[in-house]
Fold this protein.
Amino acid sequence: MIIGIDVGAYLTKGVLIENDKIIKKFSIVTDEKAKSALKTLKILLDKRLDSVRAIGISGGGSRKIKRDLLGLPTVTVNEIQAIGLGGLMLSKRKEALIVNAGTGTAIVAAYE
């Protein structure tokens, strides 16, 4: 399983993916960046710590997280790449124009 966490200015969002399928997702209002990421992670894990291969963290708040979370390998992911690759995965396309309309809006040309 892989976990993705986006620590944004207003919301912290997380997703648990297994075999290219979304198993669970969760979001909360961002309070303190690292605490919000950790809370999101714990809710997504739901006692499945051994099954997680990696955690990818993105968003403006990801800069505040300087260590692995719960002893799991944690990698900071470029937000534009995360938007593009996530959009391709969800759309099941090899290329697409992905629009992310959140606190900050991005339009990303994505290619596999």
In short: Residues 33-45 form the longest helix (13 residues).
